[in-house]
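Worked example

This section walks through a single chain of length 323. The input is the sequence exactly as stored; nothing has been trimmed or padded.
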Amino acid sequence: MIDNDWQLIDLVTGYQPAAAITTAHRLGVFSVLGRLPRSAGDMAAELAVDATNLGALLEALVGIGLLRREGDRFAATPYAAERLGPDGEMGLVVAKEAVFAGAWSRLDEVVTEGRPVMEPWRSQLDRNPEQARALLDALDVLARIGGPPLHELGELAPGKRVLDVGGGLGSYARPLSEAGSHVTLVDYPLVTGWASEELEGTGVEVVGVDLFEHPSCGVPPGSMEAALVSHLIHDLAEDQAVELLRRVRSAIAPGGHVVVNDFAGDSGPGAFGALFDVMMRVETGGAAHSRKALESMLAGAGFERIRRLPYDDPLTIYIGVRP
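Given that input, the structure is written out below as tokens.
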């Protein structure tokens, strides 16, 4: 609970460290600054920026904890050098959040007009495939950092025929295949083209399809023993999600399972679920549905014996059985 002015000030100025980090990434600071100290002037010449203002930005990054200062020179911390440097994955996440920050700045439009400010995902793929690919790369990083070990679930592996619905670049398809499942990943054709490159040699079958244009998500009805629907339901309104889950149900043989991996709007810690819900309304027009709503959608799509697995918040994972 916020109960004093300084706590509120800390929150409303939270954009400042985020802007410092995203600006440093965009300008290439972490790419040219390794663990060996360099002066602001030397870096400014290489980056073609103003030396005085770059120095101020570097000092801010020292305060944030991503750089260290040695006299009048600066160097990356070990973490920043590894994760934000030229070979670091977290730059993808930083770039993604910079794009989303621009959308969040229009939150008043979302609340006033009742619609997202970002284009539908299909339009983003068509209009700006480079940015869409970067987003998928960032989501792959996040899945590997904080995603649950779904390949350990008996409902999905080993040896099961598993449909990975809207599986992106294969964040879960790859470990499922490595665990011995026979995985078919379905997604938009442009995405599956990328996924095919990423998953070459893994044994994962990749099918390009519009999930809402095929009655059983691009595979023969009843051909799968299980299906994974990961971080897709929150992109959809409830009626759309039920329709998608019905198509998923058609792909699964009787007695098979669906696994839904998502974030619920009423999950923690703190305001995580509620803020994720707002994020979906800004970006996709979907929602971080409540746990009760997720259970209701699964039941409405025809699944039975629905249960939530005991993962800590914010992980929200449900299993249902296709009768």
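What to look for: The chain has a mean pLDDT of 96.
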